[in-house]
Amino acid sequence: MLSARRTIFLGAFAAGIASAIRPRAARFSHPVPHHSAGAWFEAPSCSELFHEQPLDHFAPSPGTFPQRYFLYDGNYRRDAGGPMFFYLGNEMDVTLYVNATGLIWENARSFGALVVFAEHRYYGASQPFPDDPTSDLRYLTTGQALMDYVGLVGHLKKEYGFAPSDAVVGFGGSYGGMLATWGRLRFPHVWDGAVAASAPVVAFEGVMAATDDMDFYAVGETFDVMPAAGAGPHCETNLRKAFAAGGLTRVDPPVLRSAFHLCDTEDAEDAALATSIATWINEALSYMAMGNFPYRSTYILNGDGSLPPFPVRVACESLAEDLTHDDRTEEWLHGLASFAAVYYNYTGSIMCNTLSAPVNEESRIVNELWDYQYCSQIFMVLGTQTTPTDMFGNAPWDGDAVARDCAARHGFLPHRRHFADAYGTPADWARSASNIVWSQGEYDPWRGGGVISSLSDTLVAVVIPGAAHHLDLFFSNENDTDEVIAVRALEMEHVRKWVEEKRTGYAHAPDPGAVMLGNNAGFDPDRTETE
User: What is the pTM of this model?
Assistant: First the structure.
C-alpha cells in the first residue's frame, strides 16, 4: 500500500551467504479459502522463516540482517512442476499481505504452487538495525530490496529442488506491484511473469510523458467524491470550497479549533491553521479513496481497525447538502470534521484531534520510512491544478521545489530520474518486455500513475470499474462485482500461460552444455571452416 501522505505540498547477490532459518508457527487471521469448492478451511500452518541477507548487495557488505518471509508448501506439487507464487513485499509488515492476498491463496492449490510472502527490508521484522530502525537508512533502496528477493528466490529454488522448467510468478499490489514490475523488467530470468495491481510505475519524471496529467492523483480523489463514484451530489462542492477556494482561511482560528475538536495540545500556529486542517482532511480522503472497497476492511488501517464499506460515500453523507453559502459556515465546518472522522476516529473513541498525529503508531513508522524512500528514489510527480476534474488549488508539479524540500528534511537531493534511467519507459517496455498484467481500480487515485492501456499481447493493462486500490488481489467476497471477478480470472489465465510456456519452452530447449562456446554439440573446436 503506497502512503498517501502528501508531504510534497505542504551488483550481484553476495554468494555464499548462509540461510539462517528459525521457523515459528504463524496463524492466519483470515481463513484460507478452498479454490474450487469455495469452502473455508484453516491452513495447518504458515511458516514464519528468516533468510540472512547482506546489508549491501552492490559492494562489500558490512554485515547481514535476517529477512522475514512466510512460506506455505501444503499445496506444492514438485512432481507436477508446481510454480512458486512469490509476493514482493511492500512498505509494511508483510503479515498484512499474507492475510489479505486472496488471489494467491485461492489459486495456489489448483496450480500446485509453493506460496511465499517476502518482507521488504526495514519493515516489519526485517530490520537491519533493530535497536534503532531509522538510524541508518542508506540501505533502504528499491535495488537492495529487489536483490533481497532475487536471493530468496534462488535459495528456495535450491531448497525445494526446482527444475529449470518450473516457473516463478511475482505478485504485488501498490508499491509491491511496482517492485513486481521492476523485478520482471530487470530480472526476467528470476520472475517468469508478474501480476502488478495498482502500481503507479509511470508516475516519475522521465517515465511519464510531459504531456500527461501530473495532477492524476488529485483528479482521482476528486472523482471519488462525485456522483459518478457513488458520492452525494454536493460532496465535491463542499470539499472544493475547502481546497481550491481556500474557504477555511476565512474562518477565525478559534472557531476552527472548536469545530474540528482540536486538542488543547495542538501546536499549529494560527497563521497556518487553515492550511494544516485542509491537509489533514485531504489525507483522510486520500486513504479512504484508496480503501473505497465495497465491504468493511482493515487493510488501509494496517490491520489495526477497520473502515466501513465505501468509506468515501459514508464520509460524504456529512456533506450531503450544499453548505457553501456563508450563512451555513458552521454546518459546513462540522460536516468537514465529520467527513474526516470516518478515517481518523474509526474507533469512535477519540475525543480530540491532533493535526500532525498519524492514524496509529504503525502508520507513523511507515510514513517516516516512506518519506525517506520518496526523497531518495521514489520521487513521484504529484501536482494539482484547479479544473472541473481537480478540486484542489493551483500547485503544478515543481520538481525543483520538491527536491529542495527533500534536501531540507534529509540532507540530500532525490535521484529524480532513477526509474527512467534504470527501467526505461512504457515505449521501451513494449519493445523489450513481456508477461506482466497491470490492473488499476477506477476509484483508486493512483490509477492515473499506472499503465492503463495494454502495450502488447503480453503486457496487458485493465481498469476495473468500481474498484479501489488493488481490490483484485483480495479474497473473494460476496460483494465483488462481475468486473473484479472477471479480472481475477484474466490474471490467473495469464499466470497459467506463463507457467505452461516455461514448462514447454524448457522441454524443447537445447542442452545447456550445447550452447557453451567451445563445447557446442556438433562443433569441433579443432576443425577449421576450410576442412
Answer: 0.88
